[in-house]
Design the sequence.
C-alpha cells in the first residue's frame, strides 16, 4: 500500500497486489476510510484430463455423439462396453474437440476399480469446489449438496464427464440442471436406468483392424509397423482390438527398438498358449499382454508394479509410490510409465487403469500385499504429520511408533502444509478407512487425528463427520479412551456447528466421561468447555457462565496456559452477553497476556481476543476504542486468511462506526464473507443492509 497526493490536493491510499476481502491500513489515517471490494467472478472449471495421444478411428461413434449434442435439451450419452475398449479415450477426445464456455467437470467414479466406488456426496463435493464453492461452504447433507449443485448449474453450458460409473443411482445426483449442458457417462454396464433421464446408450466395441493398425503405428512411430504389415495384422488381432492391449504391445516394441514385430507376435503367442491352459477367460488378449510386459520388467520395477497396485486412493505421487521399496529412487516409476503399465495423469501424479491395477494385485502374495499397504499408509501418516506440525505446532498429539521409518517426506511451511493436506485429502481418508478395515486401529486413528488442521481451517463438514466416525470406531477397537474422547469431542463440535444440538450434547457428554475414566483432566475440561459453548448457543447463559468460570479455575490448576487463554476468550464473550463487559475485558486482557507469552505462537486465537475485546468496548459505548481494536483484529484476520474471523471483525466495526456509509461498507464486507462461508448469519446481515420500509 502506498500513499500519495490525490487529484483534489489531499492524500490518497493506493492498494497494489491482490487482496481477498477488505484491506486495512495500520498507523495514522487521515480523512475518510473507503473499502473497495470486487465481487469474485464465477469459476470456470477445467477438470478434464488431457486428450488421449494417438487417438484413431471411432468416426461413427463421434458422429452419433455430435447428433445427440445437436438435439434440444440436455445431452446425456452413456458409452458402455468392456474394460479397456477405449470408452474414456473416446469421451475425452470428443469433449476436447467441443467448446463449453462454462467449463468442464470430471470425476472417476471408480465403479470397477476393485475398491470402493465413489459415493455421490464425494463427487458432488468435488464438483461444488470446482465451481467455486469454498470447502467450508459445501453442505454436509447429500440433499443440500445436490440442491446447491442444481442451483449453480441451472444456467451454465457445462460438460460433465462421469467416468467408470457403476450404476444409474451413482450418476443421477451428478446430472446438472441446465438444458445447455452435456453429460458423458462411461461404464461397463449399460445403465438402462438412465433412459428415463433422457439418456442415449452407445455400445462401444473393439477397434477394427485398420484403426488398430493405425493406433499401433502411431504409438510405435517410425516405419516398423508399415514394413511388417502382416505380423502387425496378427498382433492387433491377438490384442482383440482393445486399445489398452495395443498400447502395451506398442510399448514393448518401443522399449525394444531392435526387435521385429514378428518377434513380439511370437512372444505373445507363447503367452496366450500358456494362459489358455490355465483359463478360457474372454479377457485372454488383455491378460496375455499384461503378463508379457510384467515379466519383462526389471526386478525392482516388477516389485513396484505389484505393490503399488495396493495404493488405497485413485492417484498418487512418486514419493508414496517408492515407499513400498527398501531402496529405490522415484525415477523407477519411469519403467512402468514407458511400458504403459502406469499412466502419468499430470506432472508427478500417476494412476493405474482399472484392468492393470487388478492384474498387478494378482501378482502379489498375501504377505507382500499387507506389507506394501502398511508402508504406504504409514508414509501418508508421516507426511501428514509434517503438514500438521507446520499448520498447528501448538496442539497435543498422541505418539505413534512407525514400523518402517518413512522416507522422501515433504518439507512444508504453514501455507504449503495446508495446501498439501487439501491436495491429499481423498488419499488420507481412503488410507484411514483401509487401515480400519485391516484391523490397524492405532494407525487408523492417527490418520483421522492428523487431518485436524485441514478440518479446522477448511471445515469439510461432510468429510469431518465421516472422519470422526471412523476415528471413534478405531479408538474403541484400539481400546484407548483418551483417543476416543478426542474424536467424540470433535464430533460434538461438528454437530454443534451443523445445528444438531442433541447429537452434539450426546457426543460431548460421552467425551467428557471417556476422558474422566482415563484420568485425563485436560481432555475432560476440553469437552466440558465445548458443552458450555453449546449451552451458549442454546441461550442457557447462566449455566454456561458457571461452567466457564469453573473451567478457568481448573485450567489454572493444570497450568495449561493456552487452554486457559481459550477459556478466557469464551468467558469474556459470555460476560459481555450478560452485560458484565468490564469483567469481560479483564478476562480478555489476561488471555492476551497468555497468548503473547506462548512458546509456540497462536496468532489466530490472539486475533480472536481482539475481536471480542472490540465487541465489549462497543457494548460499553466506547466506539473509538472499539474501532481501533477492531481494525487491528481485522488486519490480523486478513493476514491469516481467516474469512470467519474477518467477518466478525467487520461486524464489530460496522456496529462501532458513527458514519452510516462506513457502517454499510463493513456490513457488506461481512455479508460477502459470510455468504462465501455459507453461514446462517448472512441472512441476518442482509436484513441490516435493506433500507427501512414505510
Sequence:
Amino acid at each position: 500500500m502506498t500513499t500519495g497526493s490525490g487529484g483534489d490536493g489531499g492524500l490518497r491510499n493506493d492498494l497494489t497486489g491482490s487482496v481477498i476481502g477488505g484491506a486495512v491500513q495500520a498507523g495514522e489515517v487521515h480523512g475518510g476510510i473507503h473499502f473497495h471490494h470486487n465481487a469474485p467472478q464465477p469459476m470456470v472449471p477445467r477438470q478434464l484430463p488431457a486428450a488421449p495421444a494417438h487417438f484413431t478411428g471411432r468416426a461413427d461413434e463421434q458422429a452419433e455423439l455430435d447428433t445427440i449434442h445437436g438435439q434440444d435439451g440436455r445431452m446425456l450419452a452413456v458409452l458402455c462396453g468392456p474394460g479397456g475398449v477405449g470408452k474414456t479415450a473416446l469421451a475425452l477426445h470428443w469433449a476436447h474437440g467441443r467448446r463449453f464456455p462454462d467449463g468442464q467437470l470430471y470425476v472417476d467414479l471408480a465403479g470397477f476399480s476393485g475398491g470402493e466406488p465413489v459415493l455421490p456426496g464425494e463427487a458432488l463435493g468435488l464438483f461444488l469446489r470446482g465451481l467455486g464453492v469454498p470447502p467450508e461452504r459445501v453442505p454436509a447433507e447429500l440433499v443440500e449438496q445436490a440442491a446447491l449443485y442444481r442451483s449453480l448449474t441451472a444456467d451454465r453450458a457445462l460438460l460433465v464427464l462421469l467416468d467408470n460409473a457403476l450404476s444409474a443411482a451413482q450418476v443421477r445426483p451428478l446430472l446438472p440442471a441446465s438444458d445447455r449442458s452435456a453429460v458423458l457417462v462411461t461404464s461397463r454396464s449399460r445403465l438402462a436406468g438412465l433412459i428415463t433421464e433422457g439418456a442415449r446408450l452407445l455400445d462401444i466395441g473393439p477397434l477394427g483392424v485398420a484403426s488398430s493398425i493405425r493406433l499401433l503405428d502411431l504409438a510405435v512411430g517410425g516405419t516398423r509397423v508399415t514394413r511388417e504389415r502382416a505380423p502387425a495384422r496378427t498382433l492387433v488381432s491377438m490384442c482383440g482390438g482393445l486399445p489398452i492391449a495395443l498400447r502395451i504391445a506398442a510399448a514393448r516394441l518401443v522399449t525394444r527398438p531392435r526387435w521385429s514385430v514378428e518377434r513380439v507376435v511370437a512372444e505373445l503367442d507363447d503367452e496366450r498358449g500358456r494362459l489358455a491352459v490355465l483359463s478360457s477367460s474372454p479377457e485372454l488378449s488383455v491378460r496375455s499382454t499384461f503378463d508379457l510386459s510384467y515379466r519383462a520388467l526389471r526386478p525392482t520395477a516388477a516389485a513396484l508394479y505389484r505393490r503399488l497396485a495396493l495404493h488405497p486412493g485413485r492417484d498418487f505421487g512418486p514419493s508414496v509410490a517408492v515407499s513400498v521399496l527398501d531402496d529405490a529412487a522415484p525415477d523407477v516409476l519411469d519403467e512402468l510409465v514407458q511400458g504403459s503399465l502406469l499412466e502419468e495423469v499430470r506432472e508427478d501424479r500417476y494412476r493405474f487403469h482399472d484392468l492393470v491395477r487388478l492384474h498387478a494385485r494378482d501378482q502379489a502374495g498375501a504377505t507382500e500385499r499387507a506389507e506394501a499397504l502398511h508402508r504406504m499408509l504409514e508414509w501418508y501418516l508421516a507426511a501428514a504429520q509434517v503438514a500438521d506440525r507446520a499448520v498447528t505446532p501448538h496442539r497435543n498429539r498422541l505418539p505413534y511408533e512407525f514400523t518402517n521409518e518413512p522416507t522422501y517426506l515433504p518439507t512444508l511451511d504453514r501455507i504449503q502444509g495446508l495446501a498439501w493436506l487439501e491436495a491429499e485429502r481423498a488419499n488420507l481418508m481412503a488410507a484411514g478407512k483401509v487401515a480400519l478395515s485391516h484391523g490397524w486401529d492405532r494407525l487408523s486413528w492417527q490418520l483421522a487425528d492428523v487431518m485436524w488442521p485441514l478440518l479446522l481451517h477448511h471445515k469439510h463438514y461432510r468429510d469431518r463427520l465421516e472422519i470422526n466416525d471412523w476415528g471413534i470406531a478405531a479408538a474403541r477397537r484400539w481400546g484407548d479412551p483418551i483417543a476416543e474422547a478426542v474424536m467424540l469431542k470433535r464430533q460434538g463440535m461438528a454437530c454443534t456447528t451443523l445445528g444438531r444440538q442433541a447429537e452434539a450434547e450426546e457426543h460431548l457428554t460421552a467425551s467428557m466421561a471417556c476422558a474422566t475414566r482415563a484420568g485425563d483432566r485436560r481432555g475432560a475440561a476440553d469437552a466440558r468447555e465445548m458443552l458450555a459453548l453449546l449451552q451458549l448457543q442454546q441461550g442457557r447463559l447462566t449455566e454456561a457462565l458457571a461452567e466457564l468460570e469453573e473451567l478457568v479455575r481448573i485450567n489454572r490448576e493444570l497450568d495449561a496456559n493456552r487452554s486457559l487463554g481459550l477459556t478466557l476468550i469464551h468467558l469474556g464473550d459470555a460476560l459481555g452477553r450478560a452485560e458484565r463487559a468490564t469483567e469481560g475485558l479483564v478476562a480478555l486482557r489476561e488471555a492476551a497476556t497468555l497468548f503473547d507469552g506462548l512458546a509456540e505462537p497462536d496468532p489466530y486465537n490472539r486475533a480472536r481476543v481482539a475481536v471480542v475485546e472490540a465487541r465489549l468496548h462497543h457494548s460499553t459505548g466506547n466506539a473509538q476504542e472499539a474501532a481501533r481494536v477492531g481494525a487491528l483484529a481485522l488486519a490480523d484476520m486478513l493476514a491469516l486468511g481467516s474469512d470467519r474471523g474477518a467477518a466478525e471483525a467487520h461486524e464489530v466495526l460496522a456496529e462501532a462506526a458513527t458514519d452510516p456509509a462506513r457502517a454499510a461498507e463493513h456490513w457488506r464486507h461481512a455479508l460477502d464473507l459470510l455468504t462465501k462461508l455459507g453461514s446462517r448469519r448472512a441472512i441476518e446481515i442482509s436484513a441490516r443492509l435493506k433500507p427501512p420500509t414505510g
Summary: The radius of gyration is 30 Å. Residues 366-391 form the longest helix (26 residues).
